[in-house]
Each structure stands twice: as structure tokens, then as C-alpha cells.
Amino acid sequence: MTSKRLSLNIFFNANKIILWIQHKLSPKQFIIFAAILIGLTAGFAAVLLKLFAHFILKTIQVHSPNEQFFLALFPFVGIALCAFYIHYLNGNKLGKGIANILYAIAKKSSILPKDQTYSHIISSALTVGFGGSAGLESPIVTTGSAIGSNFGRTYKLTYKERTLLLACGAAAGIAGAFNTPIAGVLFALEVLLVEANITAFIPILIASAAGALCSKIILQEEILLQFKSSEIFDYKNVPFYILLGIIAGVVSYYYSRVFIATENYFKRFENKKIIRVIIGGIGLFILVSLIPPLFGEGYNSIKLLSTLNPQAIFENSVLIHTHSLSKPIIYLSLVMVILLKPVATGITIGSGGNGGNFAPSLFLGAFVGFLFSSLLTDMGIHLPISNFTIVAMAGILSGIFHAPLTGIFLIAEITGGYELIIPLMIVSALSYAVSKYFMPLSIDMLKLSTKEKINTTNTDLYLLSNIDLAKFIEHDFSEIMDTASLRELVDKVASSKRNIFPVVNKDMELKGLITIDDIRDMMFKQDLYDKISVKEIMRKPNYVIDEKDDINSAMKLFDESHLWNIPIVTEKKYLGFISKSSILEKYREVLIQTSIE
């Protein structure tokens, strides 16, 4: 028996067993069972991705000369291999980032393609393993979400059940990546689910615990980002934690804007993939040559900062020589890292690589916290530098992702305790507030709101985003030519069930509107039928919906105009009418379908 046939037999037998279990269990019991399976599978996928990327990185380091110029070439190789895989082996259909998951929830009935259960593992391992300046966590989240989504799809679960299992996979992915089950749960609830009650919380909790268990059993400590806080929290330092929170919010805003601008730069080369890869590879080669910490995820740099060893971070730098490092040079170097990290990550992802902003946010936070506390300590204000380094990581993550609870508990679990819970809460809350003030939407939500016209920060707007405007065009309004007479209009009125009549020209461009009220006094004066033309009666429409508009824009027009029917056009050409009552009726249906019990 061939290995392929053996694999198929195992799959079909396992499928039969799960179907039998589904038949024996109640729907809620089956969801709990599914959460366990998805948690273990997503957790193992997270472990596999971490090990794959770590293997590539170790192989590079062992078999390459100890020269930064040579090492800086590998990110170029990783991006090229990733772009090749996406273009030729994946069919150019790899959805990147958490925005891809949110779009699937809002517009695709929580259905993610089957290939995303493995394609992100391959592409992101190639990118980050070869030194791309991005993180593995977003691809892990997408992989876990795809596992949950396709499980729900395979066993014909409802939309809300499929969405819940998708969130279970995401939670297990985060838990498996960091061995942090609580942070996995909070990430799923803060970022992916708009609203959920305790019934949704329990399966996510179980899945997250299962994912963390995989990480705990398999991954070694050197692969995981784990360290202990070395100093006890002192309440006298609260003012400085407040200041750090504000700074973290500003830096989060800076990172988000620079990353988006850098990534958008490469969109001009959308149809010139080779040029895009070359530009990105050269850009990363220059950055990594000059600033070694920009190579890879950067977790090793975080550990060095937490042990107060910044000199080791800049070993082999072409620009900075460690034997001549003075404190001013170290601080200047740290500032350069902070300023250029979003550029390096934007280049990595924008030029064709696959990765996320999770690891870069933690990396940036460590540098901000270390620099802030070291400067104040040198000024005579002695602060626990390792504590500030750790706490700032939560602050930057909260500011970039707009997920303060995830930031707080992720760092609390990584450090192995809750000694720093108070400063974590202070810094994360302030960073989130400041970042949200300058940038109301997170990076992923900004992508959706500008490109896909989706908003998940508000329940009503999110539910409306599930509604496709094109499906609500009504075509049973009788249009009339602008050259017609009142007689022809009256004939239209006699055969129409509507009281609004769009006036169009020969090119079907909307020229005006006529209502029954506009001609009520003329309809019974037959002597006017051939004397008055439609052009004399019609009035210009004050409100028109463009076919390119989204459902939220249409609802704003209805609210502003107090109308119940508004014409819709494409390039001035009349298509039909949109009815407010039809949208509201559909909204009520979506509200019922998407309420997670």
C-alpha cells in the first residue's frame, strides 16, 4: 500500500469516527469536542512552524561565515523563495495578516481556503527563517483559524459555530507560539470576535489550553520567548510607568504609520513581482548589514536587553563597532533600531515575504523600554531597567493591535508571574488610549476599512459589512426617456406599481426623478399631455448611491436624506433603486445569524 493511499485511508477512517461522535453528541458537546481537536492541531501547527523556521535559521548560522555582509543576503533569499512559492505553487491566493481572517468572518461566512492550513507555515518559515524582519505569530493565527474554519465546514456547522471554531484555532495558535493560554483566549476575544458570551468563552479556553500544551511538551525554552522579571515592582516608579505608557502609544502610532506607508510603497510593483523582490531584498540587505538586530524575529535581542547586555546586539555590525561602543553610541544605535524596525518589517512583507507585526511589536517595545529606563538611570533616576524593558513590550503590542488585555496577560505569562501586573495595566492602557487617539483603527482594521469597507470595531457597522449592496438593487421602477411627453409619462404611471420614475437619456444616464406628487395636478388635464415634456417636470436627484459605495455609506445617505428609496448609478448610468426597508430587513436576519450563543 502506497503512503498516499495509507494517508487517505487514515483520513477517511478518522472522518467516519468524528461523524459518528457528532451523531452521538449534542451540538454544544460536539463544539467542545471540536475545540479540543482544533486546539491540539493548531497548537501542533504552531510548534511545527516554530521548529521549521528555527531549523532554517540554525542551519544558516552554522554553515555561513561569521560576516554580517554574508548573513544579510539571506533575507533576500527568503523573500525570493516565499514569493516563488506564493506565485507558482500557491496560485497567488495567499491572504496575509489578521485582516485576511477578519475579512473571512465578515464577507466569506467565516470560510478560509483549505490551503491556508499549511501555506502560511511554508511561506512564513521561509521568510522569517532566512532572516526576514517579521514575526511568525500572524501566520500561526491564520493557520489555526483556517484549521477551525475548515473543520466547521467539513462537518456542516452553522456560521456562528464555524466562527467560534475559527476563533478557537486562532487562540490555540497564539497559545502554542508563546505557551500562553490566557493570552490566546484574550486575543481571540479582543481581535476576532466582536461580541461573545460565556458559551463562546469555554470552547476558546479549552482550545487555547490544548494549543499551549503542545508548546509546553515539544518546544525548547530557547525557541520560546520566556524570561523571568528580575526585580520587584516598586509603587514609587508609577509616574515613570505612566510616562512610558504615553511614549509607547506615540511609538505605536509611529510604527503603524511607517509600516503601512512602507508596505503600500510596494503596491506599485504589484504586477512586477521580480522587481518588487529585488528592491525589497536590496533594502533589507542594507538595513541588516548596518543594524544586525533587524535580522529575523528579534527574540534573541529581546533576551539580551532583558539581561542588560545591549552591546552583544550590535556584534558584527558594519556601521557600529562593539569595542568602541560608548553609552551615547549605544543609545543612538537603539534609536536607529526603533526608527527603522517598521521600515524593515514593511519591506519584508510588502516585497513578497509573509509574516506579521506581533514579534516586531514586542521587539520594538523591548528597545523602547530599555532606552527609556537606561536614559533616566544615567540621569540619576534609578529604575529597574529589566522591568521597564518587559513592560514596554506589552505597551507597544497594545498600541499597535489595539488589544490591551492580550498585551497585559501575554507578558505576564511570558515572565512566569503577575508581579508586574500593575505596571503592565498602566502602560498597556495608556499606550492603547494614546495610539487610538491618533489612529482610531488598528493596522489590520485600517486595511479593511480603506480597502474592503469593513469595520469590526462597532457591532452595527460590522454586521452591516456582512451585507452586499449589489444584492439590493431593485429594477422594477419604470424609467422614462428625457425626451418623452407628459402623455407618455401618464401611460407609465398607469402600468407601474411604483410612485417614483427615473428619467434617463439614450445612454441610460440618470437625468432626474419624477414622483406621483409632482404630476398629481396635471394627470387629469388632458390638454396638457402633449404640451408639457418630462424635462420640465423632473427634478435633479439630491441623493445618489454609487455602485462602488459600501453599505455603511448607503445607510448614512438614508439617514441624512430621510428617504426610503435612493437611485443607484455606475459612472452616471442608472442601475435601479436601493430600498432602506430591504437593507433593514436583511440587517435583522444577519443580527440573528451572527449572535454567538
Task: Describe the SSE topology.
Layout lengths: L2 H22 L2 H37 L4 H4 L2 H16 L7 H11 L11 H11 L7 H18 L4 H20 L2 H12 L5 H21 L19 H28 L7 H18 L8 H8 L20 H24 L7 H21 L6 H17 L2 H11 L6 H18 L4 H10 L6 H7 L7 E2 L5 E2 L4 H10 L4 E5 L5 E6 H4 L14 H4 L7 E2 L4 H11 L3 E6 L2 E7 H15 L3
Parallel strand pairs: 2-3, 5-6
Antiparallel strand pairs: 1-7, 3-4, 6-7
Helix pairs in contact: 2-6, 2-7, 2-8, 2-10, 4-6, 4-12, 5-7, 5-19, 6-7, 7-8, 8-9, 8-10, 9-10, 9-17, 11-14, 11-15, 11-16, 11-18, 12-14, 13-15, 14-15, 15-16, 16-17, 16-18, 17-18
Give a quick precis of the structure.
The protein is mainly alpha-helical and 597 residues long. It contains 25 helices and 7 strands.
Commentary on this structure:
Helix content is 63%, strand content 5%. The radius of gyration is 29 Å and the shape is elongated. The protein has 25 helices and seven strands. The longest helix is centred in the first third of the chain and has 37 residues, at 27-63. The chain has a four-stranded mixed beta sheet. Strands 2-3-4 form a three-stranded mixed beta sheet. It has helices spanning 3-24, 27-63, 68-71, 74-89, 97-107, 119-129, 137-154, 159-178, 181-192, 198-218, 238-265, 273-290, 299-306, 327-350, 358-378, 385-401, 404-414, 421-438, 443-452, 459-465, 486-495, 516-519, 534-537, 551-561, 580-594; strands spanning 473-474, 480-481, 500-504, 510-515, 545-546, 565-570, 573-579. The protein folds into three domains: 13-218, Clc chloride channel (Orthogonal Bundle); 235-461, Clc chloride channel; 467-594, CBS-domain (Roll), CATH 3.10.580.
